[in-house]
From TrEMBL:
<feature type="compositionally biased region" description="Basic and acidic residues">
    <location>
        <begin position="56"/>
        <end position="66"/>
    </location>
</feature>
<dbReference type="InterPro" id="IPR015035">
    <property type="entry name" value="DUF1918"/>
</dbReference>
<protein>
    <recommendedName>
        <fullName>DUF1918 domain-containing protein</fullName>
    </recommendedName>
</protein>
<feature type="domain" description="DUF1918">
    <location>
        <begin position="1"/>
        <end position="57"/>
    </location>
</feature>
<dbReference type="Pfam" id="PF08940">
    <property type="entry name" value="DUF1918"/>
</dbReference>
<feature type="region of interest" description="Disordered">
    <location>
        <begin position="43"/>
        <end position="66"/>
    </location>
</feature>
Length: 66
């Protein structure tokens, strides 16, 4: 998994009825785009995440084309 600043990290809900959590990557702390990432959630709080298999990166360039 590789991400850049400005990409969105989507953590999919693990149980029925749980919504996906979307956060913005504000800092890449690993080498060459690898985790961990500092992310900012819509409510403004930040966290350091090392995403697991229930996450995906939505790259900024692809989102702008949609």
């Amino acid at each position: 998994m590789r991400a850049s600043v400005g990409d969105h990290l989507v953590q999919h809900g693990r149980v029925v009825g749980q919504h996906d959590q979307v956060s913005e990557v504000v800092e890449v702390m690993g080498r060459e785009g690898n985790p961990p990432y500092r992310v900012r959630f819509p409510d403004g709080h930040e966290a350091v995440m090392s995403p697991g298999p229930d996450c995906q990166v939505r790259h900024r360039e692809k989102e702008q084309r949609l």
